[in-house]
Predict the structure.
Amino acid sequence: MARYIFNEQVSCPNCGKKAKKATERWWARHDGPYTGNLKIIRRQTTAYGDDDILTLWDGESYEMYCGNFCTNSCAMDFGNAAYRAGYRRS
Ligand SMILES: [Zn+2]
């Protein structure tokens, strides 16, 4: 599914868990030194020690694993509860 990006730290509508930072990865040895505008919030070496992985973040974007929800399970729970509460699309 498409990424849902939020410009604030929203919470899962089903369980209340907070959204994670919407980050990008950069492989510093493969891609070269990072020179973009994003902040480097984490730097780690691969398990094989063959590259350095940077985690990049713009400082404001958040995302959930499953659209508006933190997990597929929360999306299903919420969908079933909405149906039981009478919600219909057609
Ligand atoms: Zn949830």
The chain has one domain: 4-84.
